Each structure stands twice: as C-alpha cells, then as structure tokens.
Amino acid sequence: MSERGGALRGRLDRLMREIAKFGAVGGAGLLVNLAVFNLVRHTTELPVVRASVLATVIAIAFNYVGFRYFTYRDRDKSRRTKELTLFLLFSLVGLVIENGVLYTATYGFGWDSPLQSNFFKFLGIGIATLFRFWSYRTWVFRALPAREAVQTAESFLGQPSAEPDRVGR
C-alpha cells in the first residue's frame, strides 16, 4: 500500500505543480486581458464586447508563449502545428464562453457600467479557465509516453540509455 500511496502522492505533487504553473501564466494573462480591455474600453468607442474580444485575443497569444515555454515545456514538442491548431480551437471556445458571459450581462440584462463589465468579464474568464485547463492538458500539451520522456531526458543530459531499444516491445 505504501508504494501505491507514494505513486499517488507523486501524481498529486506533479498535478499541483502543473496547476501552480498554469495559474502563474494564467494570472499574468488575466492581467494582460483586463489591462487591454480597460485600455481599449476607455480610450476608444468600441462596444464593450468587441473590446473584450480584442483583449482576449491578445491574452491568448501571450498565454500560448507562457504555456509552451513555461508550464508545459516538458511536454511533447514534435507536433507543433497540431498543438497550435488545437490551442487556437480550444482558446476560441474559451473566448466564446468568456465573452458570452459578458455579452449576456451587457445586452441581456443591461449591466454595462465599468464595474459591472469588469465583474462579468472576470467571471467569464474564470469559467473559461476551467475549460481551458482541462482542454489544454488533455488535448493540446500532451504528456510524452514514459519511455520517450526518459530518452528525451537522457539525450538532453548526454547520457546513453540504460536499456537498449528493442523492437516489438
């Protein structure tokens, strides 16, 4: 049971580190998103949801760089085109979730003051973040299979593999 408990603890520790890194990048992306949103909203005549969509797109670009090179830097890098396509697809769904909440509050209920807009933008970001965390870790930044991860680490360290590659394994 102790070996099983140790394995579970290791998985939980890795998940907590991943959540912390995701949160750090996401928190910085949140600041970018809200800063751009408020800057555009208060310096232009763009409608509130268009300003929000623009801010979200800028934050998505910022977040991709942070996720790829910080949060998920140890994940599979062999399929960058597929990764970026999936990232943009899931980010688009997150954009719709995030801005759908703001749209509903603004045009459905008439809540359009700066405070209300920021509250519902923040709420939409929170809901979309739950979806993005699940989708990015499940579909976009996929973990390397254990054998491949060991070989990648060994090649990085310049150490030969302890076990010869066998065909049919």
Question: In a few lines, what is going on in this structure?
Answer:
The protein has 169 residues and is mainly alpha-helical.
Give your account of this protein's structure:
The protein has five helices and no strands. The protein is mainly α and 169 residues long. Helix 2 (48-71) packs antiparallel against helix 3. Residues 165-169 have low confidence and may be disordered.
Biggest sheet statistics: none
How would the global form be characterised?
A: elongated
Instruction: Point out poorly predicted stretches.
Output: 165-169
How large is the count of helical segments?
5
Count of the domains = 1
* Overall helicity: over 70%
Distance between the termini: 29 Å
Secondary-structure-based class equals mainly alpha
Protein name: GtrA family protein
Tell me the layout of helices and strands.
Layout: H1 2-43, H2 48-71, H3 80-108, H4 114-140, H5 146-157
Helix pairs in contact: 1-2, 1-4, 2-3, 3-4
Organism: Streptomyces achmelvichensis
Protein name: GtrA family protein
Task: From the structure above, extract its key features.
mainly alpha, 79% helix, elongated, 169 residues, disordered C terminus
